[in-house]
């Protein structure tokens, strides 16, 4: 059986979970989409140097703060500027696309950057109903997600004689697929198909433990994976002090506050963490805190201890880190401090 998860352990001792990054190519107040994508590539270059395993971009549409809507195009830009870190989607929202087009797009990426491409798949539209209509997608498209995953998977297999529809590039490349989810549905599908599974606990944490249990209990080995491989998303902000990190985290809190109020905008500068108490309306702080339950914010010591406990509690194989930090320097510094705290080893062993 051939393993093809693209999974590696990168802790200093080889015993800890791999660390990877989910980025949104965030457009901060005062910047442009081009600047956001160039910053994302620079971040990926540094993450590669610091020993992170993979760099994923999210697919969202009609959102002023996110520059990675054309996900496969953006990933090509990231891959061209790096050499060892895996690049992938976190994820492609498959109901928005035909499986054939995605097979061709990611087959092209795999042809250009062999052995470095991941294809994470989700069934949410990644946008609102009006934008779905603008994309010419039907609201019921998510109901065929399992069949679409199977069709996509088959397009990456070697073509059969006389096969009428083939993905070129794509056929025979077996790009590693991941199922992304925030409910039992995705966990059960990943288990049934024998695929690695990533849970979106960085913004939808409520079903995390039930989903992980269902995935592990029902897992059926496949050619891609002989055993379960689970990833969990968490938000991380690391700074020299707990107080500084809490201040930086307010940019993400403001972003989620905007989502709740249906007032999405560009990523805002941080404020003093105490000032957030003047911004909440009744119930908003509790709702935001519930969504961001798995947010580890503080100094290296504070964050490392909380991450260790989270890994011990969940048993996940890999952590997908999201850090919505307004200031580029502080954002890069947070990832560097996290790599140091967790003992990541650079590709050259340094």
Automatic annotation (TrEMBL):
Gene3D superfamilies: Luciferase-like domain. GO terms for cellular component: cytosol. CDD domains: Flavin_utilizing_monoxygenases. Residues 30-317 form the Luciferase-like domain. GO terms for molecular function: oxidoreductase activity, acting on paired donors, with incorporation or reduction of molecular oxygen. It comes from the Bacteria. SUPFAM superfamilies: Bacterial luciferase-like. NCBIfam families: oxido_grp_1. To bacterial alkanal monooxygenase alpha and beta chains. This is LLM class flavin-dependent oxidoreductase. The lineage of its organism: Bacteria, Bacillati, Actinomycetota, Actinomycetes, Streptosporangiales.
